[in-house]
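Supplementary Data S3. Sequence and structure tokens for construct A.
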Amino acid sequence: MNDRQPRAAHAIACDPSTPLQVLVDLAAQRWDLHGIIAANPAASPELIRWIRGVNPTLSTGRAPGHQPAPSAAGRALAPAAAPHVPRRSRGVGGWLAGCGCLAIVAIVAVVVFAGFGALLFSGGDETGGLSSAATPDAAPTADSEIDTQRALYADERAKIDELSLEFEESPVAWLVADFEWLFRQDEKIADPNLLEYTAQTLAAQAKTFREGLEVSVAEAQARRVNTSGLVTESIVDTAGKGFLDVQWDAATACTADDREDWRTTGCITKEDSLTVHLLPESELGEWSSKFTVVHELAHVYQRADNASVFDYRGEYNDLLAQGLFQGSAEAMADCYALTYYGEWSLTNGDTTTGYGYVCDENERSAIRTWASNMNAPMQ
């Protein structure tokens, strides 16, 4: 029926769950709904001030056929182009495109207001024409400073989104930077009751976050070159896309095993989840070196799984709780290495590596699913 569209617009205008940007777009197109939109709890103070400026009567009685054409002010409220972000995935890039940028929608809307604030909120006639009441020499208001800081934050956030391309399909992104914190910042900057000092702090913190991310990305790009020429470095560089480091210092960096005929061949320390410590390949031999490095990488992915609070992916602790891998994180790491290489024994020649348990096909199937969800490599 012909009345479906008007009714839908009316429902959108009064629905408190309607996103701010939708209300902005609707206000620019449907002046007859200005009163309803202004009364919506989801309408921001900036949007309400704009409505009152261009439509002081807040009239709801206009006939649809007599709505004024969108003015320069109306066109300024058109949807802004979102910053480029990686395609959605199970890695942090997907969350930057999803959770993070859902929050940024509101920020972009505010930035639009910031860019056109002097025009939109200076008042005008009923058709959206601009009045001459603005005073260019007037001192800046607190709202204008908040808008400025929001614009700075949005600029930093766009740069962060661009940097996040480096994390596309990365299994360790959550260990590189605290993206959970970033998403909380997105929510704070979009708060309609934001204070000037808070806005300044958020913008400054976003800049610091971006600068730190730039350092991490630059280091990762340099690390992708196998400078040692060793097999273990090649495996680590490929697995971590440069965000992981490898050191052949397990003798000093790792806690020694007290059991007779056992020695610690590698570890991940509690203080640093992004560095794999190994014994030298010349000391371990090819098989033990290759097995050990993949075993330790499994521990890195386990920590990344725990860190990824926004993207629940069947955490490895749940697999252990189901009784898989004898409930042992070490046996699970062995299973990851065995599955990675397609091997069914921990013994090669006269050397046995690992913790003594060879996982079955059911457990290997669980490992493959877990690795796929983690974007962890699997041959």
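Construct B, processed identically:
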Amino acid sequence: MEMIYITILFFTFLAGEAKNLKFSSLILIPHSVFIVIAIFSLAYINNIPSLYLIGIIDFIVRAVLMPIFLLRCLRKRLEAEVRPSIIHPLSIALSIVIVSVGYHFIEILKASVIPQALSSFSCGLTLFVYGFYLFISKKDLVKMIVSFFIIENGIHLLIIGMIPHMSKFIEISLTFNFVVAIIFLVYLILRLNEVFLQEKIKKFKESSSQRSEQ
């Protein structure tokens, strides 16, 4: 399980720090696939059959539909991230600290405070913290959506990690979290497409006015 979570964190880091927006969006696919693998592994190891259904739904929505929607919005658009709030080398350094040191610190904290929680708890909390860092440090709208995607996946793993404590409550929470997250992600992606359309219209008007002046 440890290697699965390290792989998730690695792809999370790539999605957060890649300056090419299409590459960043594509990385969300293996990121989500390994989350699904982690969920299936937890279901098998801990004998929790309900997690298999959650894993299947996650694969369809998180690993297939949402990245496709985001990539469709980015089609024929600018590919490079714009207006980062901090310089890229510093952002990479901070990301490494948050992802690597944060994960191991949270793992130690979990082992001493809530040892009954599933192993996904530490990875989920790390994703949440790192996604929140990305959300407040990036000014690019696409990167903010990627950040929210990471935050939501972190919350998802966090909730799953608490299943041994409150199984029924967790099932309700997972359903609620899933519905709210999907609605919000769809809204953000539609809003992103709207912004791109407005930019295209603005550029068209500017080019038209320049041609008329000539």
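The mean pLDDT is 78. Residues 2-213 form one domain.
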